[in-house]
Each structure stands twice: as C-alpha cells, then as structure tokens.
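Follow-up to my post from last week.
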Amino acid sequence: GSMIPVVINTWPFTNATQNAWNTIYFKKKSALDAVEKGCTTCEYEQCDGTVGYGGSPDENGETTLDAMIMDGMTMNVGAVAALRRVKSAISVARHVLEHTEHSMLVGDQATAFAISMGFKEETLETNASQEIWEQWKESSCQPNFWVNVKPDPTKFCGPYKPDTNIARKQGNNPKQRSVFSDKNHD
Amino acid sequence: TIGMVAIDAAGRIAAGTSTNGAKFKIAGRVGDSPIPGAGAYADGTVGAAAATGDGDVMMRFLPSYLAVEEMRRGSSPSYAGEVAIKRIVSYYPEFVGAIVVLKSDGNYGAACHGLPSFQFSVCNSQLGQVTVQTVECV
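User reply:
Got it. Predicted complex:
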C-alpha cells in the first residue's frame, strides 16, 4: 500500500531523504540506487560535518571515510573502511558490491581499487577540517581515545607509550564517558 | 554519519551508511558504519535497520542485526529498536546512539539513548513529503 516505497535515514538530513525518494519514487529505481543516492547527497553536502570530506579529522589531521551498502534480497555487501583521498565512499562501496566477490576493502588498497574503477583521487582535507585539527592540538589534544598510556592522555599530546602500571591498576574498564553527540558520531 | 534504509516499489530492501567517523580518532580507526549488522543491515524477508552513535561500542553488539532479528520474532520496528539500544546500555550506561528500523511492510520506528531526543527523516506516499520525526530516548 502507501507505506511502500519508503526511505528513512538517521538524523534530519532532509536533502538526502528527498534525493533518495526522488530516485525510488519518481525515477522508479531500486532501493539500492536510493540508498546510494541518499548517502551520496550527504557526502556532497558534508552533512553536519559527520559525512564526507572535510570533517572529523583524525589525530594526524586526515579525513578518512567509511561506507557500506547492503542488498537485502541477495545479502550481498560492499563496504570500504578508512578510505583515503576519494570522496565518493558509498559509490566505491557500491562498486565493491557489484564488481567483486569481497565485502570490504580498506585503507590505501581501497583507494587503489577506487582509482582503478575510475574514481578521482583528491585530498579530503579542507581549511575547515585543518582548523578543527589545529584547535584540537592547541587544546592539548583533548579529547582523545587513548587509555593506560604515558604521558597522561587526559592532559598531554602524544606520542604515547604503554603505561603498564596504570593498566595493572585500572584494568580494561568499559568507557566511563562518551565524546559522542549529535555532532560527533559514526 | 548517515544511515539509510529503503524499500522500493518492487519490495526490494536495502541499507547503507556513509561517515567520516569520530573526530580525533587514532589513525586507522574504523567505526561500526561499514560493518554489516552493526552500522546497517537488511534482510529482504524481514526488514532493515541503520544505527548511529558511538561506533566503537556499537560494533560490539551488532544493533542493526539484532533489531532485524527481533522483528523476525514478531516485534514492531520501534520495540525492535529499543531492544537493540537497551542491549548496549545494559553494558555501557553512558552509551550515545540511535537506530532507525524498517519492517518489510513499510512500518518503521526508531530508538535512542544518551541524547535529549533523536530526529530522523522519512518519506513514503502516505506522508507525501520528506518529514522529520522525533523519538524520545529510552
């Protein structure tokens, strides 16, 4: 009935939903096409700085991308992780799905695959992402994801070495706090 | 991150994610988004789900897979999402994240934790236009 077709996405990224809806309803294309189009929209628009190039720099200031697409009819999957220097992560994932028997490619090898499939290699850093990274360094690299290392990662930047005394004392406890929010998420 | 689920006019179901991950992650870190069952999952006989939040935690619980399996047991999409979120919270009370869940008949729901509320975006013929909906977190 009128409940189908349908597209839903996390967060109020309405342009992504609209483009996915246009793909599935007006252009009569597949659910896979709609998901690819919707995610591509967010990659292009850099939704909330959490999708696509120019966001979420790592400790070295580099932006890398993760994406996955799954066909629920065949259970086929294509994914890329820590994809470097290629903007169209979900489309590269679609190529993994359609042109390989694998499920996931990672890092520089995923980049090489993307280039071989015709995708452009270019930087994912922007002035904005570099500014975010510089401010983080000026804030003594806070917050970060290190535990049981020295120097104290809650106060200082790395490089870090294992602090075996702390590890023995505290063990491997679950997280007590989260840096994740509506503007910093996977 | 964007996580998306869809059913087309032929009833085919798909799911996907795209993200640049966590700010200031250790180089090489990958979150849940590219992992089937964690960031998203789809089973044409049941439905699909897509999760968002703390990927280091979510990838340990496969919330999207769990939500789809909960629907396979007969649960509604909203309840299936709550089950998946509560499973994580039982181990990580400070967990921040959310999930959207879609059943093969077009019914859908969402659940979240650690946020004031969670907004997601949806469109079907009944709504007639893209609509942002909000759920209160568990």
